[in-house]
Each structure stands twice: as C-alpha cells, then as structure tokens.
Amino acid sequence: MEELLKTNDVTLISFAEALLKEAGIPYQVFDQNMSVIEGSIGVLPRRILVAEDRLEEARTLLRDAGEGESLPPRSA
Question: What's the rounded Cα separation, in Å, for the pair 36 and 42?
Fold first, then answer.
C-alpha cells in the first residue's frame, strides 16, 4: 500500500473516498481512530492508502477532480 493523500481536511478525505469508490479503486483510511482519540480537533492528519499498482491511477483521478495540490510529491 502506498500513501495517496495525507490531510486534516475531513471533507477532502470524504471526497477522495467517494472518487476512489466510484472508480473501483480499493483504498484504506488510516489514522481515523487517532483523530477520535485526540479529541477531533483536527491536529492529526488521516491518510488514504491504495495498492501500489493503482497509485498513479488514483493520483490522476484526484488531479482530474481539481485536488492535485493536495497530493504529496512523488517519491523517487
């Protein structure tokens, strides 16, 4: 699994989940429970991870939806 997105923005997380689900790209949201434990003040970011072989497809999907600036830089 590779990190697609890391953010404190719950709206962006929900939007990305909807896009991925509609495109049939399996994903996992990590650190949701940590957000609840810290009191839901939004300090700890949540991460969306996708399979390595679907990462570029998922990145393209988010870029095409206007969220390209939210994506982390590609690692070398």
Answer: 9
